[in-house]
Amino acid sequence: MRFTSEQRLDDGVLEREFTLGEIPGVLWTPGSAPAPLILSGHNGGLHKRLPRLVARARHYAAEYGFAVAAIDAPGHGDRPRSAVDEQARADLRRALEAGEPVDEIVDAFILPLAEKAVPEWRTTLDALLSLPEIGGPVGYEGMTAIGIRLAVVEPRISAAVFFAGGFVPGTLVEEARQVTIPLQFLLQWDDEGMERQPVLDLFDAFGTKEKTLHANLGGHAGVPWFEVDDSARFFTRHLK
Amino acid sequence: MRFTSEQRLDDGVLEREFTLGEIPGVLWTPGSAPAPLILSGHNGGLHKRLPRLVARARHYAAEYGFAVAAIDAPGHGDRPRSAVDEQARADLRRALEAGEPVDEIVDAFILPLAEKAVPEWRTTLDALLSLPEIGGPVGYEGMTAIGIRLAVVEPRISAAVFFAGGFVPGTLVEEARQVTIPLQFLLQWDDEGMERQPVLDLFDAFGTKEKTLHANLGGHAGVPWFEVDDSARFFTRHLK
């Protein structure tokens, strides 16, 4: 793990960019150490392009004493796009616009993404947990498809906040039955292009006994700010 | 309003029973005054018989500085039962056990209950707000059917936590469209005898733009304790 930039922010949080082999990432750490860790597994780019995710990470670090790490998934953010991925994205957009079923495209696109991203998260986790400023239990939050697979195969993940606003292949919905860690599941009630029933079915599918669904009005990017505090308190209950 | 008992509890909360005409109630107040008020509109009896509701009220008062009042609805708790109500209860039980539709029984039982309970809540609110130890905005939590009508007709109610584990007549589902205050809606995912879809439809029906659904695993009485803190923080956002 090689740190490529370092900046002390005005809320006292240390923000560092890093690379780990091909993987580009960002780490936010609070003043206090060792801090429990939250992995922020988002589908989009790096922090510079997703201000609301940076705001979440900094709030977790500054107000709740968590370390937070985000990496770019293969073919996302600062990483090179493959022709296959670009084709899948175009197919997905076209099918959504035409109102056609997207199950096959999602299977062909998201399942390989999760299969590539999860080993990278585990490698990143090894590196992060070797840092003296990070210690204790680990949580995951963000993209559901990657998170389900990660929660199933990685025993160091102790709790998760999943964001329901993304496509989840049927294979991973089935795998959700093996997820037994406590989780909070965020649903945007008016998410564009997402149907509500499959999300409720996925909530049902999770194998854990301690799961809470939080549904709020509004579209994909409209998660209310108070949910950041709700998520932080959920992680505080389970990671501290 | 006549106080009939007074007890300082070990968490510093003052618990007083009162009567107001025919209405028996309990008031919990914190050490600090004047405190914003939460009305606890439950369908069951008084505090002595519902320890989990007493625990909620005391936690609100001791940890968050709210005053909390509970009254017995007509025909509930310490109040005399009418033959009509007893018949309706028996009919409802029989229909539920036989798996028959209950809509007509619910309309005939719950709608008159809400119609009688709401004016009593408003009278109680007048009396409570005249006490020097109570001041500021008012919230409501508990039984949904009474709460919908109260939120529609009583402008002093600023925020509400509704518990989805009770029957709501169609008339009140329609009235829910006129509810415009912020609300949190608690659903027990495995509530015995309640279907999930009508509850989700009711969540959809509420006219307010700021509404959050919290769904947890478990049956009617199994709301996790952390939801008490979530509700308290919701009221803190909106009443303080």
Can you offer a commentary on this structure?
2 copies of one chain form a homodimer. The first copy, chain A, has 7 helices and 9 strands. A 9-stranded mixed beta sheet of chain A has the order 1-2-3-5-4-6-7-8-9. Chain A has one domain (2-239): Rossmann fold. The radius of gyration of chain A is 17 Å and the shape is globular. Helix content of chain A is 40%, strand content 26%. With 240 residues, chain A is of the alpha/beta class. In chain A, helix 6 links the parallel strand 8 and strand 9. Chain A has helices at residues 51-64, 83-98, 103-129, 144-153, 170-175, 196-205, 226-239, and strands at 2-8, 14-20, 23-29, 35-41, 67-71, 134-143, 157-163, 183-188, 211-216. In chain A, helix 2 (83-98) packs across helix 3 and helix 3 (103-129) crosses helix 4 (144-153). The longest helix of chain A has 27 residues, at 103-129. Chains A and B meet through helix 6, strand 9 and helix 7 of A and helix 6, strand 9 and helix 7 of B.
List the helices and strands and how they pair.
2 copies of one chain form a homodimer.
Chain A: E1 2-8, E2 14-20, E3 23-29, E4 35-41, H1 51-64, E5 67-71, H2 83-98, H3 103-129, E6 134-143, H4 144-153, E7 157-163, H5 170-175, E8 183-188, H6 196-205, E9 211-216, H7 226-239
Helix pairs in contact in A: 1-7, 2-3, 3-4
